[in-house]
Amino acid sequence: KILTNSNIFTNLVYGIRGNSTQFIKAGYSFFTDCNVGVSVQAPTAGVEPLTEVTGNTFSNCNTGIQGDGLNILVQENSINGTAAQGTVGVFLRGSFFKVGGTYNGNNYTGNALSNLNVGIATMDCSDLGNEIRNNTLSQVNTGIRAMRNNSGLSIGCNNINYKQYGVLVHSWNGVNGQIPDQGDCNDITIGPAFNTFSYSPTTPSSPNPRAIELNNAQAFTYSDINTTVNTLNILGISGIVTLDPCFGYNSNCNTYT
């Protein structure tokens, strides 16, 4: 086990590194100028040890949080990068996770991520119930990047301010990208996705910026309130994404009128 709270990690290859660790809880610490702030790998495939990374501040790290094969909760962290190519806020592979999201019936405050090449990246996270929820991503090149099979992923209630792509779903090493339908206008227990998208132009401008980009990825339906669907039509999408406007919902996340 690793339990750490209210510590300062500066100019390290890894602030916290857990390999074959059964439980890690990292909270309310400061990670500055590290290559990776928190890095955790499961001991055995399929074990998914519990990891909690909450309330930390990451400044100018190449990667804030990375995890492989975990059951991980990431909430209430502030991750501010250098905007350099290759910087990532959160990268999870083969894991069951809540990045923000809901957990044990509670609705958690999400994470604030800014000035990164990629805000949140996932690969091969196919467990049902994976959530990226209630996060604020600002001045990121790509907000959310889903590689290969992420068939259990729900993306909801995020505020995504991007320079190139808001949500990017794509293949990797010959395996097509996949996420499920997002939101459902006809099921009030699910409701609209309730994400907001905004584009920040760059100088020189990014080539073909899109709110949603599919690249060698399966088609899906994106359901959201009508005003967001209108915004997506203006900002642009690429790939077979069916936009489904929802009516009868107010603008607050998951509130039905």
Descriptive report:
- The protein contains 1 helix and 25 strands.
- The chain has 257 residues and is mainly β.
- The N and C termini lie far apart (46 Å).
Task: List descriptors.
1 helix, 51% strand, globular, 7-stranded parallel β-sheet, mainly beta, 4% helix, 257 residues, 14-stranded parallel β-sheet
Give the topology.
Elements: E1 2-5, E2 8-10, E3 14-19, E4 24-27, E5 30-32, E6 36-41, E7 50-54, E8 57-59, E9 63-68, E10 71-75, E11 78-80, E12 88-93, E13 96-100, E14 102-103, E15 106-107, E16 112-123, E17 130-133, E18 136-147, E19 153-156, E20 159-170, E21 196-199, E22 210-215, E23 220-225, H1 226-235, E24 237-238, E25 241-246
Short description:
The protein is mainly β and 257 residues long.
Sequence of secondary-structure elements: EEEEEEEEEEEEEEEEEEEEEEEHEE
Q: What's the number of helices? A: 1
- Can you summarize the main beta sheet? 14 strands, parallel
- Secondary structural class: mainly beta
Kindly provide the radius of gyration, computed on alpha-carbon positions and rounded to a whole number of angstroms.
Answer: 17 Å
Amino-to-carboxy terminus distance: 46 Å
Report the mean per-residue pLDDT as an integer. Answer: 90
Low-confidence stretches: none
Number of strands: 25
Beta strand %? over 45%
- Inertia-based shape: globular
Give helix % range: under 10%
